[in-house]
Amino acid sequence: MTKTDFFKIILKVLGIYLILLFAVSFIQIGVSYYYDRSEFSKFFMIFLLLLAIVIVYVMVLKPILIIRLFRLDKGFESDDISLTFNDGKGLIKIALTCTAIYLIASNLGDFLTELFFWFKSSIPKNKLETVLSTFDAYQVNYVKLISSGVQILTGFLFLFNANAISTWVENLNQKKKL
Question: 86 φ, ψ to 5°?
Fold first, then answer.
């Protein structure tokens, strides 16, 4: 695999991720924002949407333009990138590590936020604060707290047991070959 092929793959995967991210977050925020604002804000939001579409188009369909623009294929000692492993364990370890880091990083913010609000709601209050707390804009979302906690725990389990899991998967693959 050449450096250019490697960067093409990375840019296409990142572009597909951005498509999913825009589909989930931009539509939710954009629709409510579009109907509540002035004409300039609407124009600005449409401009940002078109800019995002162009960026994703270039990343997914024309990644060579980005590679040439930022000269990503320059400055390496060799033209080829070796991704060979003697067995599948190395590749499985890399996949588990990347998955674990993603699970931890993507859920840590939600978990800490919900944990903070849970602690805040569990502290005893006087009667006035109890009455005023009924008007709080944010209540504890226990489903998000538990699900993000479980995903963080799963990420740490993947991270700390990547060697054992990769050995187990490799043994399963060898049994299937026999």
Answer: -70, -35
Distance CA 124, CA 150 (A): 27
pLDDT tens digits for range 28-41: 666 666 665 677 77
Beta bridge partners of 20: none
pTM: predicted TM-score of the whole model, two decimal places: 0.53
Alpha carbon 99 to its chain centroid, in Å, reads 10
Token pair 């859920």 is found at 107
**Considering only 50-54, 73-77, 98-102, which range has the smallest mean pLDDT?**
73-77
- What distances in angstroms separate CA 75 from CA 71, 102, 145, 170, one per listed residue? 9, 29, 45, 36
Instruction: Count Cβ neighbours within 10 Å for each residue of 133-166 and write b for 16 or more, e otherwise.
Output: eeeeeeebeeeebeebeebbeebeebeeebeebb
